[in-house]
Amino acid sequence: MGSVTERRSRPQGSPLVRRWRQAAEGHLTPLQRSLLVTWISFGVTFGTVRIITHGIRGGWLPWGNISAGGEHLHHYNFGIATLAGVGLIAVRGDERAIGHPAVAAAYGCGTALILDEFALLLDLQDVYWAKQGRVSVDVSIGFLSALGTYLTAKPFWHEVGRITRHHIASTAERGVSAAV
Fold this sequence. Notes:
single chain; 8 helices; two-stranded antiparallel ribbon; mainly alpha
């Protein structure tokens, strides 16, 4: 993660983002930070994949499905490959990689890619677009993602809320509109 001097010399962004970063460092253990990155990457990937698949099917995105040798490659294939890579990193046991945000993000992304096509894997039939259960699956996974993100770092989110309320109040008092 780098020394304290290295972290201080990096660009920190806006004052609000700096305060959020300080809250994360003060209220989250390394494990909680990894879990938080995992859950956020899971939720973002799951949502993005749903939008992309609907865009491909609806024809409003400029690209189509990915194929190799005439066979459609489902996105769970990429999820399995991603988790295999994360597993290789874990088996290798490199201390620098353990708990690294990129590894946590890759794990969350890979898991989302697989779970989005779980029905296909469960029944070994391409039922991705079937009406049965799609809404409940989407809502369930989205809810689990949001809940996991919150519960992983509950004290951090409370501190971010407090910091953000204070920032908005002090900005309003100064009569300056601020971009959050």
